[in-house]
Amino acid sequence: MRVSQITAAVFVLVVSPIELLGQGGEGGGGLYDINTGLSFWTLVVFAILVLILGKYAWGPILAAVDAREKGIQTALDEAAERNQEAEKLLANYKENLADARRQANELLAEGKAAGESIRMEIEEKARGEAQSIIERARAEIERERDAAIAEIRRESVDLALAAATRLVQENLDQEKDRVLVERYLTELGGAGGEG
Questions:
Q1: Per-residue pLDDT tens over the stretch 58-73
Q2: Where in the chain are the domains?
Q3: Chain mean position to CA 14
Q4: Which of 4, 17, 172, 190 is the most buried (most CB within 10 A)?
Q5: For 34, left (φ over 0), alpha (ψ -120 to 50), or beta?
């Protein structure tokens, strides 16, 4: 508002003398005629204008320009500082990301190693259980074979007794005959094992 008042005052000071001189009594002149009175008053008004502007306008204008320049410089400095902080944060972020990737790779490697270890343990356990099952099956087969051989011997004794009974056609003492035949078969088994 103060600048507009100054501008209005300067306008009045410049225009008023020119108007007064222009209405003077000479009545005309050429386009290129020099009017010394007008030139004088123009120089006076110009000097007053320069003094008024120097005192009231240029100081605040220069102060405003300086303040604006300082504000811009401050903003630039802050922007540069924030840019440096952003670069530091970005570097920190990249470092953290690389660290997280490294840790993830380590965890994957540990997981693979643990999985391999568990797989090997399971395979070893399965082999042990398979071997145990095989051994139990062999023992069961051995028992069944022994039982079958014993059954065959008993039936052989019974068949031999029945055959002997038919041959002899007389009723022998079953218990003594059984013992005799079993002993004979045992001897045969022993002789067959040696042979």
A1: 888 888 889 999 999 9
A2: 142-189
A3: 76
A4: 17
A5: beta
Q: Quick count: other Cβ atoms within 10 Å of Cβ 150? A: 10
53-92: b or e for each residue (b if 16 or more CB lie within 10 Å)?
Answer: eeeebeeeeeeeeeeeeeeeeeeeeeeeeeeeeeeeeeee
Q: Nearest 5 degrees, angle CA 104-CA 105-CA 108?
A: 85
Q: Which residue has the tokens 């100054």?
A: 6
Alpha-carbon distance of 180 to 184, in angstroms, equals 6
Q: In the structure encoding, which two tokens stand for residue 93, read together?
A: 């972020």
Q: Retrieve residue 68's tokens.
A: 């604006």
pLDDT in tens, 107-137: 999 999 999 999 999 999 999 998 999 998 8
